[in-house]
Amino acid sequence: MKNKNLPSPLISLIPIAVLVAMLAVTIHLFGSDALGGGSQVCLLAASGVCVLIGMGGFQRKWKHFEKAITHNITGIATALLILLIIGALSGAWMVSGVVPTLIYYGIQIIHPSFFLVSTCLICCIVSVMTGSSWTTIATIGIALMGIGEAQGFAPGWIAGAIISGAYFGDKVSPLSDTTVLAASVTGSPIFSHIRYLLFTTIPSLIITLVIFTISGLFHEASSTGNIAEFTQALDAKFYISGWLMIVPIATGIMIAKKVPSLITLFVSTALATVFAAIFQPELLFEIAGDTGNYILTLIKGCMSILFGSTSLDAGNAQINELIATRGMSGMLNTIWLIICAMCFGGAMTAGGMLESITHVFTRLAKTRVSMVSSTVASGLFLNVTTADQYISIILTGNMFRDIYEENGYEGRLLGRTTEDAVTVTSPLIPWNTCGMTQATILNVPTLTYLPYCFFNYISPLMSIIVAATGYSIVKRCVKPKEETLTNE
Q1: Residue ranges of the chain with pLDDT lower than 70?
Q2: Residues 396-426: b if buried by 16+ CB within 10 A, e if exposed
Q3: Which of 133, 249, 406, 418 sits between 20 and 30 A of 439, alpha carbons compared?
Q4: Tell me, what's the pLDDT at 224?
Q5: Closest CA to 54 of 276, 346, 480
Q6: For residue 33, with 0-12 CB atoms within 10 Å meaning exposed, 13-18 middle and 19 or more buried, which class applies?
Q7: Are 60 and 53 in contact (CB under 8 A)?
């Protein structure tokens, strides 16, 4: 039964306003390290405001808040397990030589006339393989910035190509925490979510690649010496072999066969770990240290790359940064953030505030296009106000989940629209954690590279365009609420 004692939309926005204000201070104080604890504290404090308003002004009982929070956290249990396995997989893929081999062969396709499009494609591949836009930009992105500047390209163009490619992978990779988060919040199976994303993501990428190709053809450039230095450093540190491609190929086959994501990621991690022991034993020795027993040292090295941070010296600062891994421990801040965000979402739900705000959007979402457009606008608004893509994904998914369900649309449509609106636009906002981080890493101001991040602002527009065409959007028959209640 619908609770009539709902707070007004204005009162419901108070916890969000508190969250935004606290996040602004936290980001100012901690910068990109805000995810290390500051943002989590802000979420818990805002949750406390929800509880105070709900219990103090609207007679909500504590047990309702506790139940809603518990329900939210229980619902993401699988996603948290996936994140832990992703952390292990990223370490295994890197140290086994899978990712270095992909980079080694990929980077050699660069030609001055096709530098921009090659840069975008290389960052696409690396980010899909690593699942991290931040890692891609902070590693191969820095190398590509140096190469591009040496060839005479403007910093904004180079950064735009890097960020466009990096956020393609961040959006569609099964290793990406934002992809997993968007799928879990909207109740979509991870690989079903990714396949549905391709209907808007591939056209956006094609348009982006065409723009970068045309721009590169009209640019005269020279010097590819940095490429040779980069590939030589990789070749000297890792055993580069085409045999290592068995791992991503096997993973791709499992994804195509729709093997459950937990099984796919686990098998891929195990296979990469075995390949690390076969192809890169000297690196495992470097990580583990000599225990006096060859087998035990290999076992220790394999376990270390799965759960802990690793740092290898390749004699090149950029390569060192690229091949450093975080393992499962590197996912703990993200998991911590998600749990705290689930507390905030549960408190907003139990307090009736999320329902109150949702009613405002319900009145605006009269058609499929207006519903998707409202989701895009909400995602952008939350990205600007909360300054964090994780929080924005969670809030957008929670606000619109019931609206999509009541109108008979699949959760994966909401998941796709949320990623189109939130994930890729986060680096375009100067005060967002992503915008601040990428501008700092690349040493290019956000407003300088923003016009050239074509993929990042074409994606939300493409989401609305595809919704207008209705392509591959299935609507279920939904019984009116009154009929459903009567039948019950």
Answers
A1: 1-4, 32, 106-107, 109, 138-139, 150, 220-227, 255, 318, 358, 361-362, 365, 385-387, 431, 475-488
A2: bbbbbbebbeebebbbbbbbbbbbbbbbbbb
A3: 418
A4: 53
A5: 346
A6: middle
A7: no
Phi-psi sector, 120: left (phi>0), alpha (psi -120 to 50), beta:
alpha
For 413, what's the count of Cα atoms within 13 Å in the CB-facing half-sphere? 27
Among 405, 406, 379, 402, smallest CA distance to 392 is for: 379
Question: What token pair was written down for 19?
Answer: 């969250």
d(CA 208, CA 202): 10
Give the pLDDT score at 462: 95
Structure-token match 């989590």, residue found: 40
Instruction: Determine the pLDDT at residue 214.
Output: 93
Cβ pair 431, 26 in contact under 8 A:
no
DSSP, collapsed to helix, strand or coil, labels residue 429 as coil
Tokens of 348: 């907003």
Distance separating alpha carbons of residues 413 and 467, to the nearest angstrom: 9
- The pLDDT value given to residue 482: 43
Mean pLDDT (the chain) is 83
- The strand ranges marked E within 190-292 are none
- Nearest by Cα to 79 from 262, 255, 252: 262
Residue 133 in tokens: 């836009």
- List residues bridging with 228 in a β-sheet: none
Instruction: Say how many CA atoms lie within 13 Å of 481 toward its Cβ.
Output: 7
End-to-end CA distance of the chain: 12
Fill in the DSSP letter of residue 205. Answer: H
The token duo for 470 is 């209705």
pLDDT digit string, tens, across residues 380-425: 888 876 667 887 888 888 878 878 888 888 888 999 999 999 999 9
* Amino acid in the structure at residue 185: V
* Coil, strand or helix at 409: strand
C-alpha distances in Å from residue 65, one per residue of 62, 347, 356, 421: 5, 6, 16, 29
Predicted model pTM: 0.69
Which element (helix H / strand E) includes 372? helix 368-386
Contact predicate 114/213, CB 8 Å: yes
